Amino acid sequence: MTPKPRKNDSSRNGSAVKYGTPIHLNNKQGSEEEEKPSSYPKALNAFSNLLFWGERNNDKLESVFGNHLGRILASLSMFILGITARGEWVIFGVYFLKYIQSGGSENYIEESDQLIQSFSDWVDVRFKGYFSILVPATIVSYLMYFGIGGYLHWFYYVRQRDTPENWKCQPKTWLSPELERHEIMVGSVSLVFGSAISAAIATYVVNGGWTTIYFNISDYGFVYFVLQVPMCFIFQDYLTYWHHRIYHTPFLYKNFHKLHHTYKQPTAFSVTAIHPIEFMHMQAVMMSPMFLFPVHWLTFSVGLVYIYYHGIIDHSGVNFKRYWWQPWQPDCIFHDNHHQYFHVNFGFNCELWDKLHGTYRRKDRIYREDIFYGTGKSLHEATAEELQQDIQERVSENPLAYQGDQRHFDLSSDEILGTLGKLKQNH
Ligand SMILES: [Zn+2]
Ligand SMILES: [Zn+2]
């Protein structure tokens, strides 16, 4: 994924927006979220204020990163944030270590197995050294989340704030400063959970715990090694589709998943801004292959990198599109639509599941937070007011975020008139 070339990079002179007033910067007209008084502890607020440092120092940063280098760094940042934010890199590291340790030998025996006689032995042996992994995992998660997330925030949301039509999926609406803080708070709480779980899995593996991960390609042959790549990917992605879809049923949505949907215009910080219960459930889904079927450590680790990288991309709010070599992958706008229209487009890395199950966004349906189950509501059942609101939502989307650079869901004037005619007959 590479950012689209910006049309008027050279003419961008910041005239539309004055930098220097960090928090109120975001109060551009058109911002639809209301600012509420801050209810966070002062220390936490000060922490998130660090992020707005970039807004105050835009001119200095601009001179260092404001060109080609900046774009390359932005793409690279997405990648690094994707693989480090939740602490999975420690698992990757541990597998790599074990691969080296096993030295290709099929008869590698864990010495620690001999020490286990009871459950407490099991905990002591398998989770030995937990904190020595937890501490670096957590530190790296935070450094990456704030360092790289902050950089992306500056690169798009500050530096190119006056030209959102060139890069932003929803160019007319912005998350309010209060909601930006909110997502950073929730997102950073989840990092603690993410790092704790990743560190637990990593110590379990490093201490010889049982998994279905294997290290030598020859164990199951080369054909299986190749076949397991799509198998593992499809398994995880399909399970994630259902996991997400189930969290969109009224009870789970209102009590857990709604938190993640606080952000109608998601940003890279939203990716971990998920209710802790749902977050842990999601990690269990991601980790499940390592306890269910034989999977080579490299397939599993690279798969996780891919999933988290796209998690960042999907929430960035930037008009990233899939590469030619990943025809299964939706563009960023697919999940951005999910945040704008709520109960639709539940998948992550394949559009296919939504197409198969009828939850893919359709032009002749209206989707809103109060219309559950992913199939929306027919245009003909809407009131004139609902229709008008829906049309406003549709035209607020950025055509540049779609394939062919045009909005796929705009209604033609004939379609609008036809619908209005039907509405009149119905009422
Ligand atoms: Zn959702
Ligand atoms: Zn999301």
TrEMBL record:
Residue ranges crossing the lipid bilayer per the database entry: 130-152, 184-207, 213-235, 290-309
Compositional bias per record (Basic and acidic residues), positions renumbered to this chain: 1-10
Domain of life assignment: Eukaryota
UniProt GO MF annotations: iron ion binding; oxidoreductase activity
Residue ranges occupied by any Fatty acid hydroxylase domain in the UniProt entry: 230-359
Membrane in keyword set: yes
InterPro entries: Fatty_acid_hydroxylase, Sterol_Desaturase_Related
Residues annotated as signal peptide: none
GO BP of this protein: lipid biosynthetic process
GO annotation, cellular component aspect: membrane
Pfam family, one: FA_hydroxylase
Keyword check for Transmembrane helix: yes
Compartments where found: Membrane
Keyword terms: Membrane, Transmembrane, Transmembrane helix
Region Disordered: start-end pairs: 1-39
PANTHER family on file: STEROL DESATURASE
Name of the protein in its database record: Fatty acid hydroxylase domain-containing protein
Source species: Allacma fusca
